[in-house]
Amino acid sequence: MDKVQQLKTYLADVVRLQQTLALLGWDQQTYMPPGGVAARAEQVATLSRIAHEKFVSDETGRLLQEAASELDGQGYDSDEAALVRVVQHDYDLETRIPTRLVEEIARTTIQAHEIWANAREGNNFAAFAPILEKIYDLMRQQAQALGYTDRMYDALLDRYEPHMKTADVERLFDGLRQELVPFVAAIFERLDAVDAKPIHQDFDVDRQAEFGLKVIKQLGYDMTRGRQDKSVHPFTTGFSVNDVRITTRYMPDYLPAALFGSIHEAGHAMYEQGSAQSLEGTPLAGGTSLGVHESQSRLWENIVGRSRGFWHHFYPELQRVFPDQLGKVDVEQFYRAINFVSRSLIRVEADEVTYNLHIMLRFELENALLEEKLAVKDAPEAWNEKMQAYLGITPPTDREGILQDIHWSGGSVGYFPTYSLGNFLSVQFWDKAVMDVPSIPADIGRGDFSTLLGWLQQNIYRHGRKYWPAELTERVTGEPMQTRSFMRYLKAKYSDIYGT
Ligand code: ZN
């Protein structure tokens, strides 16, 4: 395996540069003083350029070819075969886009971010429209450069969810929409059934932090290989399998923000910490796609963290931490409050039931804009019509409508569906885990998360990026991704809460 070893050694430099870039990014969002911005931008630009040049070089291409020819007889499941397979995919993605286009996208999105932020602030879509048109034009050029056989969107989706096809997402969404839209409408008839006041009170931030930290440690987030800090937007980042960090933000008058935010990020982090040590320092460490990553954050946040069993264990302690606020609220009232459904216009505030409708809308608009079936100037109206059709509400302003998300201004077209794919997969993985280890729900009720974490570790985490998302899903659950399990989960949980 001389040639595979050479490839690995060569790529180790690229991996270390990327890890260092991640460290600089973490520092920028946590501790860097404002004065550091300009120097940091230069540091990041220099390291990014060196990492990119090294990776897209002919040397990588040559080493890949030689390593591939050496693989004869190596099983598909071997680390060596996986390394060649995954790096070839990354290499193709990065080398197909001409440098000129990479630079133009970078330049345009830096401008667009500022324009979008101002347009949102001033509720002025017309101010954002010209640069959004330009971004979609660049996305079309990018899709052409990357190549696709069926749909233009395939090329963009592949960057976030390797080998997933637009037609597959459409099929999943079409099936779900038929059941979900009437289910949401039925819950909206009964919104009074849940009182969310218990979670909207004054909660001392230091006590929130202490409790949240205790929870994520108990779930299995390894603090000897991780830490939690504060940032404006919560995120997870890793510089090694043995150093995976999360951030959170605290709201003094709303308990779920930090608590479920921490559990969500800890879910991402446990996935990253779980890569086999043999993958450390190689491009195979980490998560296999954004969808699978999100399946882990959602599984821990929603299926575990918003379950009755979880709170039967943790609630007495939370009541001790906040006796004035929660002393007279029983566990069932609290369970209902943390699972309240609302007519939110804003995706990031949406609950489990309505969340995927927000994603479907974006996915449909992205495709229509990309394929020029919808003009940018008509997009706000299309947005509002879909909101009315799916959620029965029309945003009063574009600020609460089409201008709310940062993604398009950053050139992240094709990203949104991965949030929903993560939701679907979270339930598929959970169902299989409970089928294999039936004690898991009862273990959670006793505050023992090791059986669930052990199963995830064994079946998903340790593989890192070795398997494409669809392969991993089939290997683990025995079937392709589907929405049946997710819808069954929603109906069981929320029919019980809302009496629908
Ligand atoms: Zn996430």
3D architecture notes:
The protein is globular. The chain is built from 21 helices and 3 strands. Helix content is 63%, strand content 3%. The protein has 2 domains: 146 residues, no CATH class; 333 residues, Orthogonal Bundle (Neurolysin, domain 3), CATH 1.10.1370.30. The longest helix is centred in the first third of the chain and has 29 residues. With 500 residues, the chain is mainly alpha-helical. The model has no long low-confidence stretch (mean pLDDT 96). The protein has a 3-stranded mixed β-sheet.
Which sequence of SSEs, written as H and E, runs from N to C? HHHHHHHHHEEEHHHHHHHHHHHH
CATH architecture call of the largest domain: Orthogonal Bundle
Helix content: 55-70%
**Helix- and strand-based class?**
mainly alpha
Distance between the terminal alpha carbons, to the nearest Å? 61 Å
- Strand order, biggest sheet? 1-3-2
Quote the beta fraction: under 5%
Rg over alpha carbons = 23 Å
CATH topology of the largest domain: Neurolysin, domain 3
| Main β-sheet description | 3 strands, mixed
Total beta strand runs = 3
Q: Spans with pLDDT under 50 lasting ≥5 residues?
A: none
Compute the average pLDDT. Answer: 96
Q: Shape, please?
A: globular
Overall domain count: 2
CATH class of the largest domain: Mainly Alpha
Could you say which small molecules are bound to this protein? Answer: zinc ion
Keywords:
3-stranded mixed β-sheet; mainly alpha; binds zinc ion; Neurolysin, domain 3; 500 residues
